[in-house]
Amino acid sequence: MNLANAITTVRILCSAAILFCNALTPTFFALYVAAGVSDIADGWVARRTNTASEFGSKFDTAADMAFVVVCLIKLVPVVNIPVWLIVWTGAIACIKIFNIVSVYAERRQFAAVHSAMNKVVGALLFALPLTLTVI
Predict the structure, then answer these.
(1) What are phi and psi of 59, to 5 degrees?
(2) Higher model confidence: residue 87 or residue 13?
(3) Planar angle of CA 35, 31, 60, nearest 5 degrees
């Protein structure tokens, strides 16, 4: 296990710990921010230490999925989400799933696009729970 994968493991542990705390509490936010920082740090460390790997990429994606699912489990019940936002989120999820499936059908490998826009959307989604009191 290299340092980047250890940082990814922190995100998985933070995600698991989030399940056991109340949403939108200081503990929730501390774990949430730690998981978010680890998501940025693991890729940065892997590139800087030249330890990026196929396993690390897949491990990062699995940790991202765990974090997203846990956040949905904790936040959906406590946040009043408008129907239009649910529809758009579902549409975006369907597009992402379609892209992953079509790449797999063509190349027989799973792939996720890490474009600049993908990073912007991820940052905005990450910021949402942190801005709920302002919104």
Answers:
(1) -65, -40
(2) 13
(3) 20
The answer to whether 43 and 60 are in contact (CB under 8 A) is yes
Using DSSP, state whether 51 is helix, strand or coil: coil
Amino acid code (one letter) for 80:
N
Question: What whole-number distance in Å separates Cα of residue 49 and Cα of residue 35?
Answer: 21
Residue 38 tokens read as 């680890």
Query: DSSP 3-state assignment of 104?
Result: helix
H helix runs in 1-135, sequence order: 3-18, 26-48, 54-75, 83-107, 116-130
pLDDT(132) > 70: yes
Report the range of poorest mean pLDDT among 16-20, 25-29, 46-50, 130-134.
Answer: 130-134
Dihedral angle over CA of 113, 46, 29, 17, nearest 10: 100
